[in-house]
Amino acid sequence: MNPTTTPGSCGHKPRIAAFPKGLFYELISGEGMTIEDFVRRAPSLGIEGVELYPGFLTDNDSRTLKRLRTVAEDVGIELPMMCSSPDFIDPRPGAWERAVERMRELVDVMVELALDTGWRSVRVLSGQDWPGVPEEEGIARAIEGIEAVLAYSARRSVWAVMENHYKDGLWTYREFAQSSNRFLAIVDRINSPWFGVNFDPSNALVAGEDPLGLLEKVIHRVRSMGASDRSLRPGHSIEELEAHVGQGYPEALQHGVIGHGLNDYPAMLSKLSAAGFCGWISIEDGEAQGEQGFADIAASARYLAGLVDGYW
Q1: How many CB atoms lie within 10 A of CB 264?
Q2: What is the pTM for the complete model shown?
Q3: Residues 140-152: pLDDT tens digits?
């Protein structure tokens, strides 16, 4: 089966979603705001979609998923993306197999939640940079894992998109394929019409690399974009990010309203427009809490919408 939509052929502008990064721990704890609450709030933020995380869901049973989908449909919001974080590098017995099986479960979740078969996706990664795993072995494990997911997701019309990633909030170690050399070594060896890239320019920055340079190398495979404007806090360094071990993000790293950070979004969106990109752009802004967090997402959405209108 081939995708119903390919980049450049969808006939509409990119659409803007948001990942509720600032509510991450609240949403996975089940205390306070729920993902249903955030979806209800989403239209007021100027976005059309909400990017999900597996831990935001209380359960994967049909009743729970139907309730969430109904909430989204009632307010006119789509649920196109699953910010999943498989760890195919984990050397412990059975870990690779569990990661593949979990991703197959999340593919099924997206079939239930995202009705637009041309754009629904699950995120795939290499995994954590576990000590003692040789580079070539890690690359091979990641490729094999992603291909195993694709063998299932293609049959269900769900894209698997690999992000140039830094670190999942619940991981101990940073991404195995954080460097573009490892990332491209994996991406370039996967050949499937249901595989693409979720490009995150801020993750290139924290890897000490040029986001525009990386974008040019993968631009015709970019299926979606994670939009954030991360930067280093004053007085901190890239070396602190490299040395960080443990759950969560290091203090050196901060988010901000898109357009206020180090990324050149006009240049990136200009290049994506010229390449025919028309997928989802998902805002990730996790610095401010409470009402200020919502206001920042709305400000980022306005900024991105202005660029989309200007380039498409």
Answers
A1: 12
A2: 0.92
A3: 999 999 999 999 9
* β strands within the chain, DSSP E: 15-19, 49-52, 78-82, 121-124, 159-163, 195-199, 222-227, 231-232, 253-254, 280-284
Q: Which two tokens stand for residue 276?
A: 């025919």
Q: Is 292 exposed, middle or buried (0-12, 13-18, 19+ CB in 10 A)?
A: exposed
Q: What is the pLDDT of residue 234?
A: 79
Whether the Cβ atoms of residue 107 and residue 149 lie closer than 8 Å to each other: yes
pLDDT of residue 211: 96
4 in a structural domain: no
Give 244-279 pLDDT, tens digit per residue. Answer: 676 656 677 777 899 988 899 999 999 999 999 999
Longest dimension (CA), the chain: 52
As given in the structure block, the two tokens for residue 287 are 């610095």
Tell me whether residue 2 is in a domain. no
Please give the average per-residue pLDDT across 203-232, as a whole number: 92
- Within-domain flag for 75: yes
CB neighbour class for 50 (10 Å; exposed up to 12, middle 13-18, buried from 19): buried
Domain total in the chain: 1
Q: How far apart (Å, rounded) are the C-alpha atoms in residues 164 and 151?
A: 22
**Phi/psi of residue 197, nearest 5 degrees:** -115, 135
219, part of any domain? yes
Residue 97 backbone phi and psi in degrees, to 5:
-65, -40
Measure the N-to-C terminal CA separation of the chain; round to a whole number of Å. 29
Is residue 177 within 8 Å of residue 140, measured between CB atoms? no
Name the average pLDDT for the chain: 92
Range of the domain at 114: 15-311
pLDDT at residue 7 tops 60: no
**CATH number of 159's domain:** 3.20.20.150
